[in-house]
Amino acid sequence: MADTAPLNYEQILKPLETWLEVEFTFLHAHEIAEALTQLSREEQDFFMSWTRRISTTNIQIAYQFAVRATAGLAHMDQRVIEAWALHAMDTYDRAGLRPAMQVIEDVENFVHLSHAHAEGAVFDDFSGILLTFVHGLSGRQLKIAQGDAPYTDSETLFLPAVVASMETAQDNFTLCKAMVAFQWAQTRFGSFRINFADALAPYADQALALQQFHGLETLRLEACLQRELPGLSREMQRLKHSLGQDALPGDWQNFAAQLAAPEATVNDSLRLLRLAYAAAPGSSICYQGELRPEAVAACMDKRIEQEKMHLRLKLAQLLEDMQKQAPDGEREAPPKIDVKEHQENSNELPSFDITLDDMPVAPPEGVKQLLTSVYLDFGEIPPEYLVAAGDGDYDLTQFEQQGKDPNDVWQGTYHEEGATFYPEWDHGRQHYRKNWCVMREKDVTPVHDDFVPETLYKYSGLIKHLHRTFEAMRDEDKLLKRQAAGDEVDIDALVEALADARDGSEMSDRLFMHMHRAERNVAVMFMVDMSGSTKGWINDAERESLVLLCETLERLGDRYAIYGFSGNTRKRCEIYRIKQFDERYDDTVRARISGIRPQDYTRMGFAIRHLTKVLNEVDAKTRLLITLSDGKPDDYFDGYRSAYGIEDTRQALIEAKRTGVHPFCITIDKEGQEYLPHMYGAAHYVIIDEVRKLPLKVADIYRRLTT
User: Fold this and answer.
1) Sequence-ordered strand ranges (E) for 67-213
2) 232 and 179, same domain (yes or no)
3) In terms of residue numbers, what domain contains 229?
4) pLDDT tens figures, 637-685
């Protein structure tokens, strides 16, 4: 049973002096300890815990926090104090000690905003949960980001830093969910299938016309959400009612009745705009957000061109593959490409099948996602999108972001320009350091030498064996037991059922078994350690393993990608592209594998977060993140070694699992037993005892993971 007796003066003073390093800083903890003796044990534990956590970031901030917290905040809402402390540490990370001390001194501002911080929904707390929620909805794979107001550009859903319109924290979270759902509905049900400039041009007051149009679309989308997400829709109506926003003027009641029809579209909202323009404005709705046509237009213009290009290139790839498979004498003129839509009910998005001369074919990777996105923009697939691209139709560099050369990052003054930022888990403060790791993707420099041919010759016997094994996996049947119907009686199930019947229990009817051919739907990301410690035999073994994997996975047909990673402090976190999911295993990829060379240190958290993001963009039933490494997380001189790096890596792996990714680690570190169970779990890693066995084991491990 936990001790609830308050701590005495000595019990408080001793840990405070350790955390504040009074022997070197000459800070006085006596007054803080004396003040804490006047509090309950729960309050003592709270303030001491936060003082310890802040001291891992900066001792001066921790001291000033303790002085002010014990001076007059003992009975303040603890969530306000937590927000104040975290804001100070985040400010220190971003701007340094002086601005952080100003935050500490400005505690009165946090008291003034106590409701927003105590009951409000904070973006950092809810964004991950809502991203999972929105990924479960139909349509385009949307992103969530912090903005100055709730709105969407048709690809990203923007939410404010704090949502505090409701009285309770739970209702504020529900309001955030409603905002996300409403923005999703705008992309899902065609709010942006109009040209806003042309639609609003006839009106003298275009701002008023946009406001009234937004009100009409809100009525239509509420009806759509009621049909699509009835449970959440009821919660949204409850929020409206609690804020007194559910009353509609007479004209708007008529508009709502017309727009509630299942067949109503954005064109009906435009038709009614002529009447609504002269009507009194409707009241704004708490989850409605803003409509920003300029942001939508900029995002859509870029996406439409890119998707048209990518779809036509994918179709050209499909035709090329079919021509290669046809005998030379049977090659004919290109067939007619068409898309067939299938829609089980009006609430669902249609599914798409590609046909060549009315014969269905398996579409290339990513085509169905492209078709869905195009359909969301147009409500159909325009015929010009179904014309395969010819030679020279597109300049691919036109659509690629032109940024700074990652190799030149330390030669100029821009350092972080053009980089992607990732958070990092600080186990000392028990919170994330926001935008902490500066990450850039780079290409491995191809090396056209004899490494791949020599590897294929060296392991020719093993490769033949792997080919046979993996081809059998591709076509294998699985025996499903305890089925309600089947080809044979399941003896085990029958015996159990008879035993149940004899003792009076209900007898199961699942007494059969049958063979089932399971369709493989696997995407795997290989994350390769390129730290300096892999120099020599380890680097050779990693490269040989990748060659064997690629040669066998090509036979199996699983989608796979290969990326390397390395780091040199948080400012130089690098991901190396070796093979992307949509790349073929060709001479260029083979040359990149040959070109893998040791770099810097083993900073792993950012790499797991980034490659999880890449992996989650692939439509697959099973997603694997397999790490090939020679040691535990490590970096140079910034505290990442030992517990900090292990805990950050563990947290990144937890984040990956929450998104449905299954991590696994293959390592040659004989000391891995000390830290791998904590990071990966007891059954999600394997230690190879000798470097030379790595190429022999990796393919076999992959086979066992995916069957």
Assistant:
1) 121-122, 143-146, 151-152, 156-159, 162-163
2) yes
3) 121-291
4) 677 877 899 999 999 999 999 999 999 998 888 788 888 889 998 878 8
